[in-house]
Amino acid sequence: MKVEIYSDIACPWCYLGKSRFERALAAFPQAADVEVVYRPFQLDPSAPPRPRPHREVLAAKFGPQATAMDDRLAQLGAKEGVAFDFDTVLENNSLLAHRLLRFALDEYGAATQAGLKGRLMTAHFGEGMDIGDPAQLTDAAVAVGLDRDAVTAFLAGDALREETLADIEEARHLGITAVPTFVFEGQWAVQGGQETSTFLQVLEQIAKETAAVSEDPALAVDPADACADGVCEAPATHRH
């Protein structure tokens, strides 16, 4: 089973959703047969390429309710073992980090890319990392096994920039307008940082559906009807 996760490093719900999905995957008996690939998405592609305090950016967007939004996420994260330190979070354009994730996928594979994604999110939301700074991105990459010289050279140029932008555009073409969005087998999608139990239910149901279809193609179902209670829907019909 292939799971493509569309998310932004700068999205706190993506961080929370990643943790919950990984818990579900750990409890899924067929986890060894699941390939997880992270796809890029930018919530704010027009963000300037310079670090800005998260509290200020959020307050400018949402006003007085910004603090309550952060507090809620911090409480939810604490229950999952996910640390949010919004006082130290720096907002920056995430394109450079997405390029690095694409590099990790192409050169090292999906498992290393997932490790880098986790490292970037942990550092961004809990350690005050600037995700637009090449030196800090390089340190994060080296921490999960990438070669320092190769990463330094990559980030100094424009390699994979157009490919990453094309990936982001493809997500929008698929109808993805909010993240995280989890696309299973290119057909079924779950949007949002769902509960671990929901992700596990989806994994189990899609495994049954794909197994049934492989045995008898006549059993193929409409993707829009593939998951119970409206949890999953076709990629072209996402709802927030």
From TrEMBL:
Pfam families on file: DSBA
Residue ranges of every copy of the DSBA-like thioredoxin domain listed in the record: 3-203
InterPro entries hit by this protein: DSBA-like_thioredoxin_dom (IPR001853), Thioredoxin-like_sf (IPR036249)
Name used for this protein in its record: DsbA family oxidoreductase
